[in-house]
Design brief:
The complex is a heterodimer of chains A (879) and B (359).
Chain A (H helix, E strand, L loop, with lengths): L14 H33 L3 H36 L1 H10 L1 H23 L6 H30 L4 H4 L2 H5 L4 H24 L5 H32 L2 H10 L4 H22 L4 H30 L2 E3 L3 E2 L8 H7 L1 H4 L13 H13 L12 H5 L4 H9 L15 H15 L29 E7 L13 E2 L5 E9 L5 E3 L3 E7 L12 H9 L15 E3 L1 E2 L4 E6 L15 E8 L4 E8 L9 H4 L3 E3 L3 E3 L1 H15 L3 H6 L4 E2 L20 H13 L3 H6 L16 H4 L4 H5 L2 H14 L3 H7 L25 H4 L35 H5 L19 H7 L36
Parallel strand pairs in A: 4-15
Antiparallel strand pairs in A: 1-2, 3-5, 5-6, 5-10, 7-8, 7-11, 9-10, 11-12, 13-14
Helix pairs in contact in A: 1-2, 1-5, 1-8, 1-12, 2-3, 2-4, 4-5, 5-8, 8-9, 8-12, 9-11, 10-12, 11-12, 15-18, 17-18, 23-27, 27-28
Chain B lengths: L16 H34 L6 H43 L1 H23 L6 H27 L25 H29 L5 H28 L11 H25 L3 H27 L14 H35 L1
Helix pairs in contact in B: 1-2, 1-4, 1-5, 1-8, 2-3, 3-4, 4-5, 5-6, 5-8, 6-7, 7-8
The chains are: A alpha+beta (879), B mainly alpha (359).
Chain lengths: 879, 359
């Protein structure tokens, strides 16, 4: 924020520092351990009075000098230069608070140089004692350098109380100072052994070679056990939350942790192999291989340490993006661009969206990410997002990614950053134009003659807005399954509901009659549901034509496998169903048509990659579905991707209970609704109905626009009844908290209620049971005073609109008003009156059945009694 | 764009800025000595290697032998002033470093090239022929490039107005060519190094002469001649540098301007005296005047930096969050470390000398 950012593109993501640091750290540890190796080996030569060993030490010292003094020292300076370029703020902090630490280390660096030159160039020219003393001075100076640098480096990982008191010594002798010092000292000795093997395996004299190789192997083996002990100590000294993050919550670190463990074993085995006799021709190769393994070993350790520091550059003090923790709130308040010095524009506007996004990228992402480079490539980790999806993820990035800093900007800045990365770098866009919907001809109305016809046949579905998932090769949340209902009424002064001696059949529009050709549901039914379904047959055994079952008052056909894909291609989420009532002789008594809504327009691809599966507008593509499993695996430690790849697609309800389908789950995980809303609310909260329509097929620009009833015409949206996504999620999660599920608390911790002052005020609820009740607003069936009803739930299943009947207990609400979300008069995007065919058929107007005192639809006499519900005998308000 | 808005907010410092100023001046002076010997001798070695004949072989052999030491010392002694400069001028220095990041970071690679090349020069000196010119050339060019980049950074940090170029070129490829002082300043430093390289040769052979090595006088004259010639040339470069300083940076009537003028006159006098002594082939006397000249030039350089930054920043703006104990630890380590260095050198000298005498 304070400094300009070097635009590195592919070289970003810490590549420069990784290249230089891993190399330097290896050599600098060699510079410490190698010092002790030199003097002890020289002593060995004197003790054994063996000039050959002294000669070996002399040559090794020269090699040591060339490696450590040139490559080691210069790359050390290089690290300093590099960090100052990549993160000047953090470097400045470390320099200013620890200047005298660095300065003291510089003194020891000077002593190292002088003593090493003297030591390496005075073999045989100085007395033994003096020469050894020079070696000891060198080793002491080198170890003191390690001592000092270790203090400052570990401050960055575990600063302890330094964050509060800024005291030099508190930070220096931080919680991991001692274990890290021991760990590094033992590591330094092992590395000395590895370099020793490199020079000793080249010795020509066989006896000397064997002797020295064994000697060097001991440097690898003896400290090894001490290293493991100090590693355990080091790990134990980490603050618990850091330990959890490093070893449990960061899958990115797993390869390095695993690598460290495996390479430990390899080094041990290599050391033992070298300690035993190894032929000369193999010796050097083995030494080189071990040296490379050592470098990888060091790399694993450093990547773990560096990774563990995330999202900070100095833990709890400064984030990787150079924003101090103490400044975060103020930056968030004013916005990143305003707080930053080195940006072109101080505010995001429509015209500078991408340019501001680029500036924000430089400030916030570039410190850790490259663009197309080998390390932390931003294009790879964001490739699945559209600008909208990415902006949402950015705003809440730290919630499920503990190694990412919280986004310090405002919503517009998140949008600009999301647009820059997703559009400019990844070429992904959000559709900003409405999806073109083919114009349908006026829907055909079955005939009805009010003077002659004796029957009224009404039909509706459980839900006016229904979705299904078509990624069943990989997973399934919502199987195709529309519940169709019908009621046959015999007209008369006192109309009669007919259930006996009649047959009600249904037949879908033939274009939708063979769904098995459209989606892979039937191929996977056995794996998903444990039973092989015949093609085009739903989970309850019903096909798309058939006879409805008779209930107490109505007829129903459950779980009809309707899919929104007509046989000639495209997407049409409102197929038509023809319902026919016949008597026992087969005489047609009545016929009507209804839509059987089924949408596959779930916007998973805005965050999970891929494109729409069908016609650029609907369906879950393979790539999208695959990414969803991957993310689930990453965040929840599952292996669902593997399972799906092995031909066993995942039924989400196997673990996540779902009362809608009667699935009990595994009893441990959150129920389906709480889980899916609770998780996604963390990214999508405070976005009003946009959050809902990101996944549900009710977006104004989408291909389904399934919220199409009267409430839509009155400009209400999802949140009026269901609350915002955050509220909705909290209500579901609270019930799960009550049920003792810890995960619910985790998901709730960042959610802020929007339609209630506190989460405490939100009433817990069970999905599909405790839902908004129409009568909350329409008190006594009157005109509402309010247009929101969040937090007042139906008490049980029977109170749900779809299960409720009129006050006489005879006619279901849906029979006259149509199913929820498509309440009469509805406006269907695929044909204005597609949903209104029954009211138009029976009463020539698209209003609820019997509206405007239209009792004559069923009653053959004038009615003055409000039999079905109060306030019904009046003119419809919103015609 | 107002360049002042680009200047970062400095961090707090643990002791008063005066301490850092003293440490910066002292360690930069030491670095300059080592750097001058390193760069000066390698330039002389390179120039000599281009001359016909092999009369220069002994002196180049000595340079080859000592070069790794001088490189190591120049680097080490360069660390401390850069550290102290970052403490009090970091918010300018980090910015200019980022603006020229590619060149700034290339210093590390160039340093490694120069260093290894110096070692090859040392270890293969007696066996290679054309390689001598190649490796001295490689070391020299690497070191000259490093110096050039350092000059760029040290001048670019003084010109916040030039920083706005970053918005067109954020790729770390900016240099400070628009500053008319860059080239004379750089050449002034390089030629000063040549002079000091010559003086180092003269001093080494003075020491050899004191140990009775025949033929040393020739090289004393040789070194003194290099010193005198380069120093005379440097007068011209110095005036060029002075002449292109922007008007108003140094105002003689101010304290900074007054001190600057005083040091300038002192520097000219000491420089002239050192040349006279060099022309008289008196390396030791030359050394004292040369040291005084360099010290005065270091002071002037520092005053110039303060003067350049005056519109933007004053050292007294730095906020102190006192922390004396680490400072004391450093001072003790520094003094003890220098004592230990002295003891090691003395012990080694005596040890080797005794062994040579015994053998």
């Amino acid at each position: 924020m304070n400094y300009p950012v070097w635009n590195l593109d592919i070289f970003g993501g810490g590549l420069l520092i990784a290249l230089i640091a891993v190399f330097h750290v290896y050599i600098s540890h060699f510079a410490v351990g190698g010092g002790l190796f030199l003097v002890l080996t020289e002593l060995k030569g004197y003790r054994e009075d063996n000039p050959a060993i002294i000669e070996y030490v002399r040559k090794h010292a020269k090699f040591f000098l060339l490696v450590t003094m040139v490559a080691g020292s210069m790359t050390g300076v290089g690290i300093w230069f590099t960090i100052a370029l990549l993160n000047p703020s953090a470097t400045s902090t470390l320099i200013h608070y620890y200047v005298f630490g660095w300065a003291t280390e510089w003194v020891f660096f000077l002593l190292e140089i002088i003593s090493l030159f003297i030591y390496a160039y005075t073999f045989g020219r100085l007395g033994r004692k003096t020469h050894l003393l020079m070696g000891w001075i060198y080793f002491g100076s080198a170890w003191m350098s390690l001592f000092i640098i270790n203090g400052i480096i570990d401050l960055m990982l575990t600063p302890g109380n330094w964050v509060q008191n800024h005291n030099f010594w508190t930070g220096f002798f931080n919680p991991t100072f001692w274990p890290a010092l021991f760990f590094r000292t033992f590591l330094a000795l092992m590395i000395a052994g590895l370099f020793g093997l490199l020079t000793s395996t080249r010795l020509k004299d066989k006896t000397l070679r064997h002797r020295m190789v064994r000697h060097c192997a001991l440097y690898l083996l003896i400290p090894f056990f001490l290293l493991l002990a100090s590693a355990w100590w080091y790990k134990s000294a980490l603050p618990p939350e850091l330990r959890t993050m490093m070893f449990q919550s960061m899958p990115e670190l797993k390869p390095f942790i695993t690598g460290f463990i495996y390479l430990s074993a390899l080094l041990m085995a290599g050391g033992l192999l070298m300690a035993v006799r190894i032929p000369k021709y193999l010796g050097l190769t083995a030494a080189v291989v071990l040296l490379i393994i050592g470098q990888l070993y060091m790399g694993c350790f450093e990547f773990m340490r560096e990774g563990g520091r995330r999202p900070y550059i100095i833990r709890n003090y400064m984030y990787s993006n150079s924003i101090r923790t103490a400044d975060l709130a103020s930056v968030q308040k004013q916005g990143v661009l305003k707080a930053a010095k080195w940006v072109r524009e101080k505010k995001v506007t429509k015209d500078n969206l991408l340019q501001s996004g680029h500036d924000l990228y430089n400030l916030l992402c570039l410190p850790c990410h490259s663009i197309g480079g080998p390390l932390n490539d931003i294009t790879k980790v964001t490739k699945n997002f559209t600008p909208w999806g990415l902006a949402n993820m950015i705003e809440t990035i730290d919630r499920f990614h503990p190694y990412m800093p919280p986004f310090p900007g405002n919503r517009l800045e998140a949008r600009a950053l999301g647009a820059y990365i997703a559009s400019n770098l990844n070429g992904r866009f959000d559709s900003e134009q409405p999806v073109p919907i083919p114009a349908l001809t006026k829907p055909e109305l079955p005939p009805f003659n009010p003077d002659k016809d004796s029957y009224v046949l009404l039909s509706w579905t459980d839900m006016g807005m229904q979705a299904m998932t078509d990624a069943s090769n990989q997973w399934m949340i919502l199987p195709p399954g529309v519940n169709l209902h019908a009621m046959l009424i015999k007209r008369g002064e006192s109309p009669e509901i007919i259930t006996d001696d009649v047959r009600i059949t249904y037949a879908i529009d033939p274009a939708f009659g063979k769904p098995a050709a459209q989606i892979p549901f039937w191929q996977n039914s056995k794996q998903l549901f444990g039973k092989k379904l015949a093609d085009n047959t739903g989970l309850s055994g019903n096909g798309l034509t058939g006879t409805m079952q008779s209930g107490d008052d109505d007829f129903h056909a459950d779980l009809l496998p309707v899919v929104p894909y007509p046989s000639d291609g495209g997407y049409m989420p409102y197929p038509s169903m023809t319902i026919t009532a016949t008597d026992v002789k087969g005489t047609v008594l009545a016929r009507t048509k209804t839509v059987v809504p089924t949408a596959t327009e779930m916007g998973c691809n805005r965050c999970h990659g891929g494109l729409w599966r069908v016609d650029g507008r609907a369906g879950i593509a393979t790539a999208t579905a695959g990414n969803i499993l991957k993310v689930h695996d990453r965040l929840s430690g599952t292996s669902l991707s593997k399972q799906a790849a092995a031909g066993k697609p995942v039924l989400c309800q196997k673990c996540h209970a779902d009362s809608r389908f009667g699935e009990k789950g595994d009893g441990k995980q959150l129920n389906m609704s709480a889980s899916i809303h609770g998780f996604h609310a963390n990214f999508l909260a405070s976005r009003g109905a946009d959050a809902c329509t990101a996944c549900h097929p009710a977006g104004e620009l989408g291909a389904s626009r399934a919220f199409r009833g009267i409430h839509h015409s009155l400009d209400l949206n999802c949140t009026n009844c269901h609350g915002s996504l955050a509220d909705h999620a909290i209500s579901l999660l609270k019930a799960e908290v009550k049920a003792g599920k810890k995960r619910a608390k985790t998901l709730m911790q960042h959610l802020k209620p929007e339609m209630a002052a506190t989460a405490k005020e939100i009433k817990p609820r069970q999905p599909w049971i405790n839902e908004p009740d129409c009568l909350n607003c329409h008190k006594d069936f009157e005109q509402p005073d309010d247009d929101t009803t969040f937090n007042q739930w139906t008490a049980g299943k029977d109170d749900l609109f779809r299960n409720r009947t009129d006050e006489a207990g005879l006619v279901p609400c849906s029979a006259c008003h149509n199913s929820m979300h498509a309440l009469y008069p509805a406006t269907n995007p695929y044909g204005k009156d597609l949903d209104n065919r029954q009211p138009l058929q029976y009463q020539k107007k698209p209003l609820p059945m019997g509206a405007n005192k239209g009792c004559a639809v069923c009653h053959t006499k004038v009615m003055d009694e409000e039999l079905h519900h109060p306030n019904m005998l009046r003119e419809f308000r919103n015609q | 764009m107002n360049a002042a808005t680009l200047i970062p907010v400095p961090d707090t410092i643990p002791v008063g800025w005066g301490w850092f100023h003293i440490l910066l001046t002292l360690t930069f002076f030491l670095h300059l000595l080592a750097m001058n010997i390193m760069l000066g001798t390698i330039i002389i070695a390179f120039v000599q290697s281009l001359c016909p004949g092999d009369s220069y072989l002994p002196v180049n052999g000595q340079i080859a032998k000592k070069l790794p030491y001088t490189v190591a010392l120049a680097v080490n002694l360069g660390v401390a002033p850069l550290l102290f400069a970052q403490v009090i001028f970091g918010h300018f220095l980090y910015v200019s470093s980022v603006l020229m990041a590619v060149f700034w970071l290339s210093i590390v690679a160039l340093l490694i090239i120069a260093y290894y090349s110096a070692y090859i020069f040392r270890y293969r000196y007696t066996t290679m022929q054309a390689g001598r010119t190649f490796f001295t050339g490689l070391t020299m060019l690497s070191l000259l490039a490093i110096g050039f980049f350092l000059s760029n950074n040290m001048t670019m940090m003084l010109h916040p107005r030039s920083w706005t170029r970053y918005f067109q070129h954020p790729d770390g490829l900016l240099l400070n060519f628009s500053d008319p002082t860059l080239i004379p300043r750089y050449l002034h430093m390089v030629v000063s190094a040549i002079a000091f390289g010559g003086l180092a040769i003269a001093l080494w052979y003075t020491y050899q002469k004191s140990r009775g090595q025949a033929g040393s006088s020739r090289w004393i004259k040789y070194g003194c001649t290099w010193f005198a010639g380069a120093s005379i040339a440097n007068f011209g470069l110095g005036f060029w540098f002075f002449g292109v300083l922007p008007q108003g940076v140094i105002v003689p009537s101010t304290l900074i301007g007054g001190l600057f003028s005083l040091f300038l006159i002192g520097g000219i006098i000491c420089g002239a005296l050192s040349i006279i002594q060099a022309l008289r082939y008196q390396p030791l006397q030359t050394l004292w005047y040369a040291l005084a000249t360099i010290l005065l030039m270091v002071f002037m350089r520092d005053l110039l930096r303060v003067a350049y930054l005056k519109p933007w920043f004053s050292l007294s703006d730095l906020h102190v969050e006192s922390s004396w104990s680490p400072f004391l630890v450093f001072v003790i380590s520094f003094v003890a470390g220098l004592g230990l260095v002295g003891w090691m050198l003395k012990t080694t000298y005596i040890g080797i000398h005794d062994k040579e005498v015994r053998s």
